[in-house]
Design goal:
Chain lengths: 398, 263
């Protein structure tokens, strides 16, 4: 069989030349009374297929099927659903809600991939969150994360099913082995995307991310390699409400995996570990607090309204608190219901980490502080005056 | 023991801005520094030199003047340095960068005991090149290392994960990325600078490391930058002067909190 991307039926062709005019690449010519393809010129754009009045021209899908490296062989959008001890991480649900929109824009299916052990229960949650299909690899070798074994598993699934797009959370795990998988698959990977969309003309994934500490945004594509891969930090996208009525398919895959070269001999994961990314109310302080003792005001306020204390980078650099509380580009991205910024001027690195918060209240003495640009309510004033008054007022209420 | 540390020269990102008319980077007046996270990587290597007498080689990829970061590393105690510099490497994304660095490592020593990276670079913030190099070298990858012990050909590391710490055991060789919690980097000594200033630092191009031209730089990069632009400016909401009327400001805060179901 010819490996030309377009097939012209010599019986149906009447030599009307409409296809010759329609072809943008001069890939068709007349030989006698028949249109003939110049395969080396053809880009398989199908313009000729559409104009032929005699249905003599058809595209050849066999071409892409028989050529596994062809980009057209890759379809569907996948979300890597990271799980810890059987619990799918929230970022996976956030990605599924964005993935749902992308799948609609692309006109394809959305699938979730779970690697782990004793994790089969996760499928129903992932389907309710938007997955049309869930690939599960449930094997003891995957019980704990190990970069080599996880890379091997995901890469085997990519080789078998050829997804067009893979999204993963930019977590400690996602940022590590996903980069290995991208190298192995010889494809592009864009880290920490803050916006994703499908280009209306090329159907490529447009991946937008901050660079240079958030001072610059860049939009990136992977035009000639598949899958197109991107990571997104937790809390950057919003999670949609689950729909228990959704239905989907679950595929259990059994893989022959490589042997791990390392082993975890101790894991100290405490549930009580502070995770400001999960907080609904954050009282954040910055350089304006002037000294470590004044951090006390933040905790008092946080206790009164049920929030947790966050800080800008300045407080961590000054040694007033630990990096676990840092909000911003080099700290955590947060998206609480309420974010109160006290004495934070709002360097771009900080704003990138909190601008998605539902309601932002800022208290700062500098009327030109950039934080006011993102605040729903901005109070220009002395925090050492305003905050104690606020604490008094809240205490008298309770 | 031979340890290789990969360091990057980065602009001090806090000062990088975009020209809103041309959408190009304004680099004038922006100081170049050694990527801060790479200092922790270097410190881990130097600790192995102190303890086990490891030879420490630093490599960097960048413009010809990036040799300064290698000299700085040598002033702190690294034994030798190599600069990967070639027009052919320009515009490399993380895939093409990982490839070029892995090729250079193979030339320096096909079997190094350890290769260190900082957890990420502050200009791109991708954290992808360390893992990428581990893939090209087919080498064990350990990310976010905050403590390291090496005994013979065995290592035990503590890694800084999202939910706590993991203690991991494995065999050398390995590629590791290092976090800030690992240590406080040492300063360069004056004597160190005297030696480092005069040190010969070989400059290698794509041919020197047997890198396929089609896999280098912009050509070899699967990702393409479509556009760069300044982040959107948000206009703020309500503004109040708390200097004149602090009580009214506090009332406004409390009202907003109540509207949102808090307080």
């Amino acid at each position: 069989m010819s490996d030309a991307p377009i097939i012209i039926d010599p019986v149906l062709c009447k030599g009307c030349k409409k296809c010759i005019t329609a072809c943008p690449f001069d890939a068709l010519e007349m030989q006698g009374k028949l249109a003939v393809l110049k395969p080396e010129e053809c880009r398989a754009c199908n313009a000729c297929v559409k104009v032929c009045p005699f249905k003599a021209i058809s595209s050849a899908p066999e071409k892409t099927d028989s050529n596994p490296t062809g980009l057209a062989a890759f379809k569907d959008i996948w979300v890597f659903a990271e799980q810890h001890e059987g619990k799918v991480q929230e970022v996976a649900y956030e990605l599924l809600s964005t993935g749902r929109r992308l799948a609609k824009e692309r006109g394809c299916d959305l699938a979730a991939v779970v690697l782990g052990h004793n994790i089969k229960d996760s499928a129903s949650h992932l389907i309710a969150a938007g997955a049309d299909r869930v690939y599960i690899v449930d094997q003891p070798e995957l019980a704990a994360y190990e970069a080599d074994v996880y890379s091997d598993a995901l890469h085997q699934l990519i080789a078998k099913y050829k997804p067009e797009v893979i999204l993963a959370g930019a977590t400690a795990i996602g940022r590590a082995f996903i980069a290995k998988v991208a190298v192995r698959a010889h494809t592009g990977l864009t880290a920490d995307c803050t916006a994703l969309s499908i280009d209306k003309e090329t159907y490529l994934l447009h991946q937008t991310r901050p660079a240079f500490g958030g001072n610059i945004m860049a939009t990136i594509m992977t035009p000639n390699h598949r899958p197109q891969m991107a990571t997104v930090r937790p809390k950057v996208f919003k999670m949609a409400a689950p729909d228990a009525k959704r239905t989907g398919e679950t595929l259990i895959e059994t893989l022959k995996l490589i042997t791990a070269r390392t082993k975890i001999i101790k894991a100290e994961h405490s549930a009580s570990t502070l995770n400001i990314a999960e907080a609904e109310i954050i009282i954040a302080g910055g350089r304006g607090l002037k000294k470590a003792e004044n951090m006390e005001m933040l905790s008092t306020l946080a206790k009164l309204i049920g929030g947790v204390v966050g800080v800008s980078r300045a407080c961590v650099d000054a040694g007033w608190t630990t990096a676990a509380r840092q909000v911003g580009q080099t700290g955590k991205t947060v998206c609480p219901k309420i974010y109160i910024a006290i004495g934070i001027s709002g360097a771009i690195q900080h704003l990138e980490g909190m601008r998605a918060s539902d309601t932002i209240i800022a208290i700062n003495s500098d009327p030109n502080a950039p934080i006011f640009g993102v605040a729903d309510l901005g109070i220009v004033g002395d925090l050492f005056e305003i905050v104690p008054l606020l604490i008094d007022a809240l205490e008298s209420k309770s | 023991m031979h340890v290789i540390v990969c360091v990057k020269q980065v602009p001090d990102t806090t000062n990088v801005r975009i020209n809103p008319e041309t959408n190009t980077l304004i680099r004038e007046g922006v100081e170049s520094i050694i990527n801060p996270y790479d200092e922790y990587a270097l410190e881990e290597a130097l600790k192995l030199k102190d303890k086990h007498g490891a030879r420490v080689t630093v490599i960097s990829m960048g413009p010809p003047q990036a040799d300064i970061v290698l000299r700085e590393a040598m002033a702190r105690g690294a034994d030798d340095g190599v600069l990967l510099t070639d027009r052919a490497f320009a515009g490399a994304d993380t895939w093409a960068t990982s490839y070029a660095i892995a090729q250079a490592i193979k030339k320096i020593n096909p079997n190094p005991d350890l290769v260190f990276f900082g957890k990420q670079a502050i200009d791109g913030d991708t954290a992808q090149v360390g893992p990428g190099v581990s893939e090209f070298l087919n080498c064990t990858l350990i990310t976010y290392v905050q403590a390291l012990e090496v005994k013979g050909d065995t290592f035990i590391v503590e890694t800084h994960m999202d939910e706590g710490t993991d203690v991991i055991e494995g065999k050398l060789p390995a590629v590791m990325t290092v976090v800030k919690e690992a240590s406080t980097p040492r300063f360069a000594s004056l004597g160190g600078w005297m030696i480092a200033k005069k040190a010969a630092i070989p400059k290698w191009g794509a041919k020197d490391v047997n890198a396929e031209p089609a896999l280098c730089g912009l050509n070899g990069s699967p990702t393409k930058v479509v556009k760069i632009f300044a982040p959107p400016v948000k206009t703020g909401g309500m503004r109040m002067d708390g200097r004149e009327e602090p009580k009214a400001a506090v009332e406004a805060i409390i009202k907003l909190l109540q509207d949102k179901g808090v307080a």
